[in-house]
Amino acid sequence: MPYVRRRFAALTAALAMTVTSGAAISPAYADPRETEKTATATGYGGAVSTVDPEASAAAIEVLREGGNAADAAVAAAATLGVTEPYSAGIGGGGYFVFYNAKTGRVGTIDGRETAPAAMPRDAFIDPTTGKPYNFTPELVTSGISVGVPGTPATWERALKRWGTLDLDDALEPAIEVADRGFVVDETFRQQTLDNKIRFEAFTSTSELFLPGGDAPAVGSVFKNPDLAKTYRILSNQGTRGFYHGPLAEEIAATVQTPPKTARTTLPVPAGHMTTADLAAYTALDQAPTQVEYRGLDVYGMAPSSSGGTTVGEALNILDTFNVSEMSTPDALHHYLEASALAFADRGKYLGDPAFVDVPTAALTDPLFGKERSCRIDPKRAAAKPVAPGDVSNYDGVCPASAAAPADEKDTENISTTNLTVADQWGNVVEYTLTIEQTGGSGIVVPDRGFLLNNELTDFSTVYDPQDPNRIEPEKRPRSSMSPTIILKDGEPFLALGSPGGSTIITTVLQTILNRVDLGMSISEAVAAPRAAQRNAAKVTAEPAFITAYERQLKRYGHQLMPAGDAFTSAAEIGAATAIEFERDGRMVAAAEPVRRGGGSAMVVNPSR
Ligand code: GLU
Fold it and tell me: Taking 70 as the threshold, does the pLDDT of residue 282 lie above it?
């Protein structure tokens, strides 16, 4: 079924006149329809929100041709693998949440990366010194941190379980974009520059993303014929062509012997992945987490992600307060404190449930939330870190104070991408996918056009046998991804998610608070300045949040500091996408107006 071929044919022909070969050639400008960004779109018959207009266009095309939300989500995700290669792609993993209009039920797929069977518990210790590797650059740019990718298996499973298309049809729009190229924007160029030293460390990566030694110019067209070829392997052979055979052999070889350039000074520790690890990979069907918030049913991602339990617990805590009647500073104070408490429990209890006992039911129990809410002083921020609660012993009654634990090191990075899709039948997808930090491990599989993840850096970096997120062979590292679908009276009300490492949790939480309690529209809720309290001494916040609320929040004892880290040039938190469903069938698709250069919301029909 040639979804986008007709639409893009003229464009591809036009580009062939100006683009001769290789990656970025300037100047050739693509169809403005595909590069124009709209942050809010309202209408009927289906909707999509992603960070990128090409990906949103792919989803809309699939929806217009009669595909459903699962089909469109895979098409959009595969296109993001082309246009957002530093955040998403077949070298990574993610979590796919689906509301099935026919059954009225929410199901999820855990497509998280897994640790290789030979990953030792001291994988993050340098054997030459006996000391822990530095997180940067050793761990982030390494084979050690590459987990077995889950994204191809997730796409295949999602289509089989809920879709109507085969993988080859769903990949078609992405193959088109990879072949004909997309227009480089500021964000893509800046992300490439931010990664220049890492990308220069590998022959394969510098060839693809640093043609002529520089990041592709803004306005030039970036093609990825290698990725188009790799996608065709998936089209023709299904995921067998990825997890078995030559491609699997090349992935394992790349992890074990990263293709380093002669001149790099980066250490690049080698990894342990084998073809057997790839062959063993399975994307898992999981029951969602569920909590009730202000009468709404909030469904999230169960462990191995900490998203569903942490967002859920914080909502249970907030549900015990009348936030909508509070002043804005009071409401924000309660939001920050609830988040800190939920993060304390995340640190203590969350890991891969196949390896550790995760008390998901207790963490999402309203009674536990009620007991945790006792820790919030309405006028005073608690000293951080706050102590975790006791999931084995709670009754909703305020307990005596517990001792505070040590500050937990937060080493999650802020890449990833998220998309929201709904179709004419009322099915909804919320999907967050990632290769971990922007640029993943920095390692492109030679001639295959995609980057490998560095997701295993999401394991705790120091091995502690009590830690639920300690390294173990074949385990999934704890994630923060929080794709969320909210029902009202059994019908979709809101679907949302975001990238941003552990600030994914706070972004989703704050956006729900903004929309449900603080009277904002979904577009305003997405755009509003953000702050993240992750049980640390300081609240990280965007500059606009600091300007607006620092003085007021100081009175409670909150200390704000600007967001942003060594890896990124922007002081942004998250890059959310959302769709709200109105009673008459109207959908409001919301994307970021500014963050990450702005996202792209589209609908199938602007009017009925
Ligand atoms: N690795 C992170 C997680 O799974 C996501 C990375 C990001 O959002 O930047 O939670």
Answer: yes
